[in-house]
């Protein structure tokens, strides 16, 4: 059996780490706006209703989101405050519609 060169092994690990870190950075960036229920073929995998879902003959509904969604408020450290802000925004929107 051939011996493993420690330096070559270290270089391979560094290369793999670089590849995976780029993937993680891209996923982190996408997670800020892209719906987590939207698959790579723009199909909706959510088990609940969404205004961005459109029926599809291929099985899963098609997602028509523009990916400009902002989910960061869901991760706020003060969720009660975020809920109050959203309620205020919704109330203002309803008043404008009347």
Molecular structure report:
The chain is mostly helical. The protein has three domains: 1-31; 35-67, no CATH class; 70-98, no CATH class. The protein contains two helices and two strands; from the N terminus they run αββα. It has a two-stranded antiparallel sheet with strand order 1-2. The radius of gyration is 22 Å and the shape is elongated.
Key traits:
single chain; 98 residues; mainly alpha; 3 domains; two-stranded antiparallel sheet; 2 strands; elongated
- Report how far apart the termini are: 80 Å
Based on helices, strands and strand pairing, what is the structural class?
Answer: mainly alpha
Mean pLDDT: 83
The fraction of residues in strands falls at under 5%
Please state how the strands of the largest beta sheet are arranged side by side: 1-2
Task: Draw up the topology in text.
Blueprint: H1 6-31, E1 53-54, E2 62-63, H2 79-97
Antiparallel strand pairs: 1-2
Compact overview of the structure:
This protein is mostly helical. It has helices spanning 6-31, 79-97, and strands at 53-54, 62-63.
